[in-house]
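Comment thread on ticket #2218

A.B. wrote:
> Attaching the input chain for the structure job we discussed in standup.
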Amino acid sequence: MSIIGLNSKTDPNKILPMTYKWAREHYKDGVANNWTPEEISMQKDVEQWKSDKAISDVERRMILWNLGFFSTAESLTANNIVLTVYKHVTNPESRQYLLRQAYEEAVHTDTFIYCCDTLGLDPDYIYSMYETIPSIKEKDDFVVGLTKSIMDPNFEIKTTEDIQTFLHDLVGYYVIMEGIFFYAGFAMMLALKRQNKMVGIGEQFEYIMRDESIHLAFGCDLINTIKTENDGVWTDSLKDKVQKLIIKAVDQEKKYAYDACPNGLLGINPEQFCEYVEYIADRRLERIDLPKVYGTENPFPWMSQSVDLSKEKNFFETRVTEYQTAGSLEWD
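C.D. wrote:
> Ran it. Output below, let me know if you need it in another format.
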């Protein structure tokens, strides 16, 4: 049995009995976080966005940049799942999770449509930022380059070298794109929410980050399982290459942090956003059994609250004491 299509004994249509219980748990966690953007009120966001005083020019620019990056990045991640990862990961319970993840990426894409429509933003401006803003384009181009090999329709997993290529690209997709490139933007938007500004968008970013934390966990489990099942693929050369890619990704995300929010927000400077990126990069490295590079402390301990599924939360301007699924909310 193998989680990828190297072993012909794998039957993608036979989900029971399950081999990888962690894949099933990630699927269930995703369902527990089910949400749609229309459930979140944006009335106050609209009022603040139209006000000349509620949102500063610096904050307005930062919001637009993050909407611009995420609006196209979510489509990029969805394409990677549907066109490449699903094709080569033939284990059925893992494929079940990938289908769930693909749905969540569609919800994220819908979120940015909802934000643009609600705030009356120019879609041509927002959806062309990945081509017109250098630090956004560099991140997108970097990830496209990292996953170029398996996006080749002729790519197949037959040899040890093929498995190494697949691992390399999975790191590019899950660890770098979803595990690093999203997080300066998350920190910016949630820091703004902590000031009671653009709370509706902030809540949507919280739910997106919860989804992404599960995507990342699945991706790291997938990478580590492939490493375990295929002796000799996780070579010192590949580990060194992956570490260097992650360091380069951190540098690009730090550049984005300075470009998107050069003057910082109330009580937060761009250096802290960069420290946060270093902190989460160390955690990603450790998750795939590589040594930490930065040793940076977490400057934003409050960020961890945003991925706590049992956290009390403002939602429809009331309090939710326990959020599991859309059909089982408890109010007080």
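A.B. wrote:
> Thanks. Noting for the ticket: The first helix runs from residue 21 to 32.
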